[in-house]
Design goal:
Blueprint lengths: L2 E5 L6 H13 L8 E7 L6 E6 L2 H17 L10 E2 L9 H14 L5 H27 L1
Antiparallel strand pairs: 1-3, 1-4, 2-3
């Protein structure tokens, strides 16, 4: 279920925010899986962030990368509570754009190294289960 997250740091400037984004990009988390919308808004040193995520689990996984970066930038933030979204209306061609991106990823002639690793780990987990089934059939 999609969730909304409002993050209101005690203090965050545009310069701090920009540094956080650069560090997230460097960590490979600039466009994390499951984040549908990201907006930074406010004035002066009172910037806030609003995100929409596919699930609270996706948001929490992203937090493992984000929180150390915020600490390095001395950005204090209270724990956020992802709130379930009752209805999400996407404006413009957002749905079409998401579909196009998904189709392009499916047709891509390359797979990123992280995806290759996930695929390899998934196959490795399946292989012992298949071998157990084959061994059990052979002994019967």
């Amino acid at each position: 279920m999609a969730v909304a997250v409002l993050s209101a740091p005690v203090s965050m400037t545009a310069e701090q925010y920009d540094r956080v984004i650069k560090q997230l990009d460097a960590a490979g988390a600039g466009d994390p899986p499951g984040r549908r919308l990201h907006a930074c808004f406010g004035q002066g040193d009172h910037l806030m962030v609003f995100d929409v995520w596919d699930s609270a689990d996706r948001f929490e996984a992203f937090g493992e990368t984000l929180m150390p970066i915020l600490a390095r930038e001395h950005i204090e933030i209270a724990p956020t509570e992802p709130l379930a979204i009752h209805r999400l209306i996407e404006g413009g061609d957002m749905g079409a754009l998401r579909k196009t991106i998904t189709e392009l990823r499916d047709k891509a002639f390359f797979i990123r190294p992280v995806e290759k690793l996930r695929e390899k780990l998934h196959k490795a987990k399946e292989k012992p289960a298949e071998e157990d089934t084959t061994n059990a059939s052979a002994t019967n």
